[in-house]
């Protein structure tokens, strides 16, 4: 509907409800029986069509539950599983300090999580991200994965920052970026285009394929598995600044605050 002002009728049509229902949801009416599913569907359409975002935020504010869903991908890698649990624990501790409860969404249980204000999706591929989105009306945030859809926040590590740190550490000498493998093809493509040499690791034995004495690492889980013979530049993926950026994006998404830039790197 680019170039055309979105009306309440447009929202009602897209959501499959009456104009009156849209009006009730936008104005936060609590004296009428509107299911949580219907309310979230209306608010999702409001968000997608960018219709009166401030009013939508007003309606959502009174329904906040301070519940955060944390979705992870399917993996058979022990290293990947350890990384997922480490990142979730870090996010849970950070969000807990802000009075939010974080619960795990395992890959085998992608369903509707109406109790969540928003869902954080960690290192998911685009298809899996979309599948979770199809089940939920709560906003989704992409953490350490490239979705490249202006409707969703994506919070990623600034690879140029890592590159600059490695070049400084190794005085311009060649190095290899060693990272955990990912199913997100867009993330892989961007990484391959940024670094001259990349090794994707699934199991500890994959580290035998390291081809440089200088290596760059951003996954904390890999540190304990790197032999002492290598020179290591460690720049963590998950930092205090990144968590703050994630929290800010979470609040903006949950409140349906209109933001032009959803592609965040730090």
Automatic annotation (TrEMBL):
Pfam families tied to this protein: LacI (PF00356)
Signal peptide: none
Key words, A-Z: DNA-binding, Transcription, Transcription regulation
Parts forming coiled coils: none
Record InterPro entries: HTH_LacI, Lambda_DNA-bd_dom_sf
GO molecular function: DNA-binding transcription factor activity; transcription cis-regulatory region binding
SMART domains (UniProt xref): HTH_LACI (SM00354)
Residue ranges of every copy of the HTH lacI-type domain listed in the record: 6-62
Protein name, as recorded: Regulatory protein, lacI family
